[in-house]
Amino acid sequence: METTILELESDADCSIQKIETIIKLIVQNLSDLKEYVLKKGFKNIAEEIHFFKHQKPAIVSKLIFYNTIYKIETKKPYGAKQIKKFLNEELNRLKKFFDNNLEFYKYYRTNNTFIDDKLFIRGKYDIKLSLDTFYFEVDHRFLRLIITLRKYIIYNISTLF
After folding, report:
1. What pLDDT sits at residue 13?
2. Residue 103 above 90 pLDDT?
3. What pLDDT is stored for residue 119 in this prediction?
4. CB 117 within 8 A of CB 46
5. What is the 3-state secondary structure (H, E, C) of 61-127?
6. At how many degrees (to 10) do helices 80-100 and 56-75 cross?
7. pTM for the full predicted model
8. 53: which DSSP letter?
């Protein structure tokens, strides 16, 4: 999957169709992974935590990233002023998302494990944790994706003028 995505990204033309292709590839890989996990299961709790904390989020974070770019590109209005306003609003949304999930990112980035059994074991969600609804989908690398999205948006703003 990584190799295919890199090949598609290496082409200078980053069209909506190319992004759709990448999203379909990631969705298919996630589907295959889910089927594999349901079939094989986990040897123990540590393996399950590792999977949901490190392996699955590595793929899902890419889906979130490309889906966000897809939404930006397909919703982008016409006209330099409208595009600039739209892209600045997207930057604000990214910042708000990051700010709303700061505690989870801090937990992740500091390699904490004290609530892994509540975060990364199926069926063990604790409502008192007040985490975003897809907390289990994101890993510490998602911060890099937010930064990359931010750069993507800023670059698009800078090309307007």
Report:
1. 65
2. no
3. 81
4. no
5. HHHHHHHHHHHHHHHCCCCHHHHHHHHHHHHHHHHHHHHHCHHHHHHHHCCCCCCHHHHCCCCCCCH
6. 150
7. 0.73
8. I
Q: Roughly how many angstroms between the first and final C-alpha of the chain, as a whole number?
A: 36
96 phi and psi angles, rounded to 5 deg: -65, -45
The pLDDT confidence band at residue 27, using thresholds 50, 70 and 90, is very high
Question: Is residue 23's pLDDT more than 90?
Answer: yes
CB 33 within 8 A of CB 66: no
Q: How far apart are CA 151 and CA 122, in angstroms?
A: 35
Model confidence pLDDT, tens digit, residues 117-146: 888 887 766 656 655 544 444 444 445 556
pLDDT at 86: 93
Q: Quote the CA–CA distance of 49 and 39 in Å, as a whole number.
A: 17
Give the residue carrying structure tokens 């006209």.
79
Owner of token pair 């904490």: 112
Q: What are the CA-CA distances from residue 8 to residues 20, 75, 150 (Å)? A: 11, 22, 21
Is the distance from CB of 59 to CB of 33 less than 8 angstroms?
yes
